[in-house]
Design goal:
Layout: H1 3-13, H2 21-31, E1 36-42, H3 48-53, E2 57-67, H4 70-82, E3 88-92, H5 95-101, E4 106-111, H6 118-128, E5 129-138, H7 153-171, E6 175-180, E7 186-191
Parallel strand pairs: 1-2, 1-4, 2-3, 4-5
Antiparallel strand pairs: 5-7, 6-7
This protein binds S-adenosylmethionine.
S-adenosylmethionine (SAM) binds at residues 17-19, 43, 45, 48-49, 66-69, 72, 94-96, 112-114.
Length: 193
């Protein structure tokens, strides 16, 4: 078992929700042979997905990733050390605040944190997205709730914001968006060519 497999196994065993295999496969397929210079990830958890994305970078590429949970931050740091990666910047705190302070050009943005802020994250992702950049929004279908009439109080806010994300990204004439039924739903958004 590789070190990365161990990190993945540990996350699964400790019930940390990490990116699913078919989601990673779809992202890898979409990126293809392209090398990315800068990636923004919202929702690090223990660093598993960032470590997978590291392989998509060019030689001096960088990943900026944001996490607010202290235990997960500590685990992500030790996982980055274990994997000897130096090009992953871990931002500690609330992504909704931190994202407003960032001003880099990103070739890829991976949104994988609190669903109630997805549409807000989209605005900032678009503000910083490079001409050929790609935004991936994970869990966009949220166990099927987003496309059904399901309306339990507990999920209502999240579902409203996810629906708003889909509306914004599909109705904006500057954008091209597509939803894939992998993992818990993956929306892919690019600038229209
Ligand atoms: C689905 S997990 C991320 C999984 C990770 N991307 C992976 O695939 O390995 C979502 C993470 O987002 C974090 N999170 C949720 N809301 C956040 C916020 N407002 N700011 C920063 N992190 C947040 C949670 O603590 C959690 O660890």
């Amino acid at each position: 078992m590789t070190k990365l497999d161990k990190i993945k196994k540990e996350a699964i065993e400790t019930h940390i929700p990490i990116m699913m295999d078919d989601t990673l496969d779809k992202i890898t397929e979409i990126i293809g042979s392209r090398k990315l210079h800068r990636i923004l990830e919202i929702g690090t958890a223990t660093g598993y997905s960032a470590l997978c994305f590291e392989k998509l970078l060019d030689d001096d590429g960088i990943i900026d990733t944001i996490e607010r949970d202290e235990e997960r931050i500590a685990k992500a740091k030790s996982n980055f050390e274990l994997m000897k990666v130096k090009n992953i910047n871990l931002y500690e705190g609330d992504a909704a605040e931190i994202i407003q302070t960032l001003d880099n050009k990103y070739d890829m943005v991976f949104i994988d944190a609190n669903k109630g802020k997805y549409d807000f994250y989209l605005d900032h992702a678009l503000r910083m997205l490079s001409e050929d950049g790609i935004i991936f929004a994970d869990n966009i279908l949220y166990k099927g709730y987003v496309m059904s009439g399901y309306n339990l109080h507990k999920q209502r806010t999240a579902v409203t914001h996810l629906r708003n994300y889909i509306k914004k990204s599909t109705e904006d004439e500057r954008l091209e968006s597509k939803i894939y039924e992998v993992g818990d739903g993956l929306e892919v958004t690019t600038w229209k060519k």
